[in-house]
Amino acid sequence: MQNQEEINRLKNLVQDLLDESKKQGATSVEAGLSVDNGLSVTARLGEVETIEHHCDQSLGVTVYVGQKKGSASTNDFSKESIKETVKAACSIASFSSEDEYAGLPDKDRLATEFPELDRNHSWDIDAEAAIKIAVECEDAARSYHQEINNSEGASVNSHQGIQVLGNSLGFLQGYQSTRHSISCSVLGERDGDMQRDYWYSVSRKADQLESAKSVGIKAAERTISRLGARSLSTRQCPVLYSAEVASGLIGSLIGAISGGSLYRKSSFLLDALGTQILPEFIHIHEQPHLKMALGSSNYDAEGVATAARDIVTDGILQGYVLSSYSARKLGMKTTGNAGGVHNLVVDAGENDFTAMLKQLDTGLLVTELMGQGVNRVTGDYSRGASGFWVENGQIQYPVEEITIAGNLKDMYKNIVSVGNDIDYRGNVRTGSILIEQMSIAGE
Amino acid sequence: MLNQVKQSILTPYGMQEKDIDTIMDSMLSAPVDDADIYFQSSHFESWVLEGGIVKEGAHSIEKGAGVRVVSGEKTGFAYSDRIELSVLLAAAKNVKAIARQGQNVQRKVDVAANRTNYYQPINPLKSLADQEKINLLRKVDVETRKLDSRIEEVIVSLVGVDEQILVANQDGSLAADIRPLTRMSVSVILEENGKREQGSMGGGARTDYGYFLDQNKAIEYGKEAVRQAIVNLEAVDAPAGNMTVVLGPGWPGILLHEAIGHGLEGDFNRKGTSAFSNKVGQRVASELCTVVDDGTLQDRRGSLSIDDEGVPSENTVLIEKGILKGYMQDRMNARLMGVKSTGNGRRESYAHIPMPRMTNTYMLPGQHDPAEIVKSVKKGLYAKNFGGGQVDITSGKFVFSASEAYLIEDGKITRPVKGATLIGNGPEVLTKVSMVGNDLELDAGVGTCGKEGQSVPVGVGQPTIKIDGLTVGGTSV
């Protein structure tokens, strides 16, 4: 149930910001605000460790004086503060340069329809009840196996917030949304080898979360599975990215076809529109209007309507990821992606995880990556990794202290298959991804 | 300083020092071990030049207060962006529910401990007129573009923060700090025959913008960024495998931050979750290695006159001649481990819980001439510049990514190789340090460290060092 009264109050505040900006000389203006209230509790070793009450708010304004731009933000919503914030933004605009591409989106691209996306499900939970869930979660992990001997705790988080966006073209919208999560991280030890792993579940609706017990057990299973990890010798071999790390591979792709990287020529996928960047069997869509999904939105960060679309069909790049500004710089039209993509879906293949392991046959299963190690200009890729060595489709032993390296352009083209073991927790929904060959460095 | 900060944080919102006592009394109505109220006001600005024009600037003002009660290993925490007695009393009521045990320490009025200020209480945002900031960005852009005809893009940014904090502890102490912070960076993209590469350089300090005008520092950042991009244009595939690695002085000290720094933070060691737990007094590095965390360096990005719990900063010896000496502590973990806080209690803002964090972490210089170190390597990697890093404090495995590196062949630095991630094991890596240079350098002042979602500015440094065996993650198998 949306708190319409509060949304309206905040919409009025944004309208005040817009009006004040006009009064102070802005020729056009965009303003937004967000408020967020939340509760986080952590239990460790069976007892409450922290209780945090969150209460955040901020408002921001971007003014255009002609083609000159300035931005300012504050967490003080008082009348005087709004005046000062607008003044600061206008002052910055007076010093910045004319930029012919700057400005609000084209009016005809602004969202006009606002179907219910089912993003708001309050969780009526107090600190005591949240602690009970966290303790249950951690207990499940700690009692899972005798080798689990320490814990970083289990946490329960519940957040509810309101976002409002408006501009001087008459756009003014607000909505309320929620986000709840349960997470757990435990340690295990075997013969002096200490390992840690975690698991989490996140949803807009509390009853859609995995059970506390299940989150705890998965965290424990993952920790136990890592005990006794060793390095590998340096080699080349096929690499299977588990679903939870495969989303990062797709994330790098999105970064490379994003307007900001393209107009700065800092992308390894320049001029790739209409070309084959992935194997023919790969299709990637953006689905901004999925009910209850974490990335869903009717409009982007500048109010432009979002729409379901194909980004990659038969491995061929169908469209970039653009805001109004980057689109103008490139002589194109915005794709409704100011602020990023909304629910990216990689079509699942036929293999479940076991079948993917079989297809890997002998090689490396990667379940965790470390460090940044991706050069977005050249696509050169080198990251720390841990996971499992696999032979004949069977997991043999855990591995760590190795790196995996290649070039993303080649890695994308050398994808052998995508699994149907989709991780639904993030903004990118993909199954595990098998790459034909990468360089492994180890002992 | 205390009065100045009270004037600027409390007075505008009609609060007085006695209101702090009222909130504290409310929190102390149940037995607790520690409690604090943290007020913060922060002004931030940034200016960005791109495509030859100053495209945008941003400005933000944030202020608020956080209240915290600690009881045993339990923490209750709440905050508000409204610095008002009624709001903060409500927050205090919320957090004291955590307190069911504790020492109920007597409040005593404590005269502010001796403290030294390691930076000037100045507002960097006001140190240059806005037009002068713009002129500086333009000058760097123009001078950088002159350096090479292959330059495709130059991005220059200037960031300044004027931060004031006021922290009241349950022992009755009240401490204030004014913390300037500035940062400038230049990144370039070069293109040659359809091949593109990037280079970037920046610096900063707890001082004003005059820092970047001094000795043409800003222009030098541009030169260095272009030099790195040119080197990378010529780079060949990096080697893969375990080999001898020589790390240059300065920023490569990120090795220390990742490999041992995080693992020596008090919270992980109290909980026994660090690969360094229970290792005080043991050898964790070769005897050539002495590593400190030093918040007392003048004007450095990671320096603090007092930490976010009001404790004066220290120069803490972490490893002395290879032996682990101690951990970095905040008040809570120090109390629970029966030691003193080392002044490492830091928080990103009033909206975050303090925890043990690094300040400036570096290795002291040794005896060797850096040229001699390179000469001693038959085949290996020389890494001069790095991007970020990461560590799993439990397994001890850490990575850091070289952005400028060369092969060493027969004692000579030869071809540049592409960036690669280096991976190692924290408790082991420093035991393989076989030579330490006499050329200690600190980084240029751009480091930001993330831990449990909180970011704080930090510094690193080291002399040239030689590591006999580290895994280099190139593609050339």
Short description:
With 443 residues, chain A is α+β, with helices and mostly antiparallel strands. Helices cover 24% and strands 37% of the residues of chain A.
Provide structural commentary.
The complex is a heterodimer of chains A (443) and B (477). Chain A has helices at residues 4-23, 79-95, 127-142, 212-226, 243-256, 259-263, 324-329, 353-360, 408-413; strands spanning 28-44, 47-65, 68-74, 148-167, 172-190, 193-203, 235-241, 284-286, 309-313, 316-317, 344-346, 363-370, 380-391, 394-407, 415-418, 428-429, 433-441. Chain A is an alpha+beta fold and 443 residues long. The model of chain A has no long low-confidence stretch (mean pLDDT 97). Chain A is globular, with a radius of gyration of 24 Å. Chain A has nine helices and 17 strands. Chain B has 477 residues and is α+β, with helices and mostly antiparallel strands. In chain B, 21% of the residues lie in helices and 39% in strands. Chain B has eleven helices and 23 strands. In chain B, the strands form five sheets. In chain B, strands 3-2-1-4-5-6 form a six-stranded antiparallel beta sheet. In chain B, helix 2 (17-27) packs parallel to helix 3 and helix 4 packs parallel to helix 6. The chains are: A alpha+beta (443), B alpha+beta (477). At the A-B interface, strand 2, strand 3, helix 2, strand 6 and strand 13 of A face strand 2, strand 3, helix 3, helix 4 and strand 4 of B. Strand 3 of chain A pairs parallel with strand 2 (53-71) of chain B.
Write the layout of secondary structure elements.
The complex is a heterodimer of chains A (443) and B (477).
Chain A: H1 4-23, E1 28-44, E2 47-65, E3 68-74, H2 79-95, H3 127-142, E4 148-167, E5 172-190, E6 193-203, H4 212-226, E7 235-241, H5 243-256, H6 259-263, E8 284-286, E9 309-313, E10 316-317, H7 324-329, E11 344-346, H8 353-360, E12 363-370, E13 380-391, E14 394-407, H9 408-413, E15 415-418, E16 428-429, E17 433-441
Parallel strand pairs in A: 7-12, 11-16
Antiparallel strand pairs in A: 1-2, 1-4, 2-3, 4-5, 5-6, 7-17, 8-9, 8-11, 9-10, 12-13, 13-14, 14-17, 15-17
Helix pairs in contact in A: 1-2, 3-4
Chain B: H1 2-9, H2 17-27, E1 34-50, E2 53-71, E3 74-80, H3 85-95, H4 130-145, E4 151-169, E5 174-192, E6 195-205, H5 210-213, H6 217-233, E7 240-247, H7 254-261, H8 266-271, E8 291-294, E9 315-320, E10 323-324, H9 331-337, E11 345-346, E12 355-356, E13 360-363, H10 370-375, E14 379-391, E15 397-409, E16 412-417, E17 420-425, H11 426-429, E18 433-436, E19 441-442, E20 448-451, E21 454-457, E22 459-462, E23 465-473
Parallel strand pairs in B: 7-14, 13-22
Antiparallel strand pairs in B: 1-2, 1-4, 2-3, 4-5, 5-6, 7-23, 8-9, 8-13, 9-10, 11-12, 14-15, 15-16, 15-17, 17-23, 18-23, 19-22, 20-21
